[in-house]
Amino acid sequence: MEPLVALRGVSKGFASGGSRVEVLHGIDLTIERGELVAIVGYSGAGKTTLVSLIAGLLAPDTGTVRFAGAPVTGPGTDRGVVFQSYSLLPWLSVHENVLLAVEAAFPAWDRTKHAQHADRYVAMVGLAPARDKTPGQLSGGMRQRVAVARALAMEPELLILDEPLSALDALTRGKLQGELERICVRSGKTILLITNDVDEALLLADRIVPLGAGPRATLGPSFRVELPRPRDKRALQHDHTYKETRAAIGEHLLASSPRAKRRVAGATAEVAR
């Protein structure tokens, strides 16, 4: 069976200062149905460009992007995206924000079915008690959960999470990581997680693929996460497999970035003095 997502030899660049800068180069990536794959990379490496190619918001300069066996020619409800920004309508309640997406995805349903479906996903992300609150009455973590519920409620074949927790404070981010793992496992969706946090990827993913530093960023080897679920972040700190996988991913990312290597070398020299 063909993978759900297949990128072959994909490159993408943009005009900059009178010249063209290639952001991604020779990207090969496959995602099987039911997988939770994390792409980990430095800020500015091209992770969001990669998301936009898979979502159909951008077209590759070279190579092919296929989804469910067909070429990607534009956006579709078969791919749901949760971005860093919540993009909620501030005058609508939690329920109404999710309901709006449900009505767009399933126009043939009646009003009752729309409402019940929206409520199901509001409850899935733990926001049933806040159902009738507007975004202004919610914390940042709660708003992000609304964005996740909205994307899931459209029942996409692929859920793309583009650094969904990066704008949150450390305490909220840590709490929501655990909740996100529960939501991901419960939904059973194929999920692509984009993050700059290796620990977050190890907590959530089945497989991690590092994206090297740009420009002309390429994907590194896949790292299979052989850790049982559910995963506890504190318990993982003492797990040998976790430590080995984390170190291997970190080494690959470091090797791809001359700037990062210079920082490490400088810090080492400073300690030696």
From TrEMBL:
<dbReference type="GO" id="GO:0005524">
    <property type="term" value="F:ATP binding"/>
</dbReference>
<dbReference type="InterPro" id="IPR027417">
    <property type="entry name" value="P-loop_NTPase"/>
</dbReference>
<dbReference type="GO" id="GO:0016887">
    <property type="term" value="F:ATP hydrolysis activity"/>
</dbReference>
<dbReference type="InterPro" id="IPR017871">
    <property type="entry name" value="ABC_transporter-like_CS"/>
</dbReference>
<dbReference type="InterPro" id="IPR003593">
    <property type="entry name" value="AAA+_ATPase"/>
</dbReference>
<dbReference type="InterPro" id="IPR003439">
    <property type="entry name" value="ABC_transporter-like_ATP-bd"/>
</dbReference>
<feature type="domain" description="ABC transporter">
    <location>
        <begin position="5"/>
        <end position="238"/>
    </location>
</feature>
<dbReference type="InterPro" id="IPR050166">
    <property type="entry name" value="ABC_transporter_ATP-bind"/>
</dbReference>
<dbReference type="Pfam" id="PF00005">
    <property type="entry name" value="ABC_tran"/>
</dbReference>
<keyword id="KW-0547">Nucleotide-binding</keyword>
<keyword id="KW-0067">ATP-binding</keyword>
<protein>
    <submittedName>
        <fullName>Nitrate ABC transporter, ATP-binding protein</fullName>
    </submittedName>
</protein>
<keyword id="KW-0813">Transport</keyword>
